[in-house]
């Protein structure tokens, strides 16, 4: 199962951690893992190449963490449409593929 933790401050998403593999299908055929991976990496590309925001992130097999908590308030504000869309997209996947992804939101 993939677990996703979003971290919010003052109702703004400032970070997320993604851990694990969904286990929906075998490696290379797991559409849930592929969707989560594509969406999460698109967020980082959008932040860097469209919004010109430099997030801190780390990507490894079965793990991705991203944070904009040390960026300016302006950067955090600009990133919200992208990050909230990402959250809504993952929530949609979690409804369709119950038991393969869990999402938590933590106020920090």
Question: Quick recap of the structure?
Answer:
Belongs to the Prp family. With 108 residues, this protein is α+β, with helices and mostly antiparallel strands.
What are the key terms here?
108 residues, alpha+beta, Alpha-Beta Plaits, 2 helices, 41% helix, 31% strand, globular
Structure commentary:
This protein is of the alpha+beta class. The protein has one domain (2-107): 2-Layer Sandwich (Alpha-Beta Plaits), CATH 3.30.70.1490. 41% of the residues lie in helices and 31% in strands. The protein has a five-stranded mixed beta sheet, covered by helices on one side. The longest helix has 24 residues, at 73-96. It is globular.
Radius of gyration, CA atoms, in whole angstroms: 13 Å
Taken in chain order, the helices and strands follow as EEHEEHE
The CATH class turns out to be Alpha Beta
CATH overall fold name:
Alpha-Beta Plaits
Count of structural domains: 1
Low-confidence parts:
none
The largest beta-sheet arranges its strands as: 3-4-2-1-5
CATH superfamily: Cysteine protease Prp
Number of strands: 5
Q: Which class best fits the helix and strand makeup?
A: alpha+beta
> Roughly how many Å apart are the termini?
24 Å
